[in-house]
Structures are given as C-alpha cells and as structure tokens.
Amino acid sequence: MRNFVIGCLLFLSIATRANAGWNGVEWGMTEAQVRKEYPPAIEKVSGQTYYLSIDGSVIIGDNEFHSISFYFNTKGQLKAVSTKLRVPFDQVSKKMAGQFGAPVLSDNGDLMGLQTKRATFRDTTKRNLIEIYAFENPKNTIRETMITYSEIDADF
User: Considering only CA atoms, which of 102, 82, 51, 79 is closest in space to residue 144?
Assistant: First the structure.
C-alpha cells in the first residue's frame, strides 16, 4: 500500500509539473530548455525533420518508455512529443479514456497482417491532443503502442 501511495504521489507530481506539455516540458520550449529536462536526448534528422530523441529505456513514474522524441516547429519551438511503450493498445486507451473521456477519433484496420488501432483524446486542461497508435500481431507477439502529445491547434 505504501508503494502504491508513493507511486501515485510521484505520478501526480510529474503530471502537474507543466501547465501545458508533457512530463516537465512545455509547448514552445527551445531545444536548450528541453535538453535541460532530458540531458540524454541526442540530435536526429529524418528527411527534413529535425528532432531530439532518447532511445532505450526511460522510466518516468511507473511507465517505461522505449523511446521518446521531441519535435520542434520551424521557429525552434517544441510542438510535439512522441513516445513508445511496450504495453497493449487497449490498456493504454482504457487508461486515457478514464482520464479524458471518450476519444474524439477512433478506428481500427489491417496493414500487412498486423492489426492497426488508433484513438485520439483531448486533454483540455493542459491543451494537449493525445494520439495513440499501435500495430499489433494477432498472435499478440508484437505489442508496442506509440503515443504522441501535441498542443491543441498547434501551428507547425
């Protein structure tokens, strides 16, 4: 019970650190400000997209992320954070629905034998748009859920 209470307090302290953003970073922050919060982030480029990324296990509260990427607009301001968890989509979606209500968008599909699932939630308190996306093997051998947080009505 004591560990549960400590875990809840840690989660609440992390969740309320920023007015609008994700776990210690706020929308509009510069690369230098993000690096202060997440020193292991390294520069990456994919096509014309420049971003900071942490690859490998990062534990925040009771969540273990397998990558975290920070995306900036052309003005150098933080506009989105993308994370990956090895947790089934349905588990993540249920937790988000408990926090934010029904998704504003939801769909399922199939891509080359993998089941695709997507749901979008709005956190109006922190002005976050939260998109959850997953590819799942029907045999449940592949389970990775991607979660992208961005500012509601962000200007990229």
Answer: 82
pLDDT (tens digit, 9 = 90+) per residue, 65-119?
A: 778 899 988 888 898 999 988 888 888 899 999 999 999 999 988 877 778 899 9
Query: Pick from 61, 70, 11: which is nearest to 38 by CA?
Result: 70
Nearest one of 78, 85, 44, 39 to 62, comparing CA atoms: 85
Nearest alpha carbon to residue 122 among 146, 142, 137, 106: 106
Q: What integer pLDDT is reported at residue 102 of this predicted model?
A: 94
Domain ranges, ordered by start, for the chain:
2-151
Reported residue count of the chain is 156
Sign of the alpha-carbon dihedral angle for 35, 78, 75, 54: positive
* Model confidence at 59: pLDDT above 80: no
C-alpha to C-alpha distance for 111 and 61, rounded to whole angstroms: 33
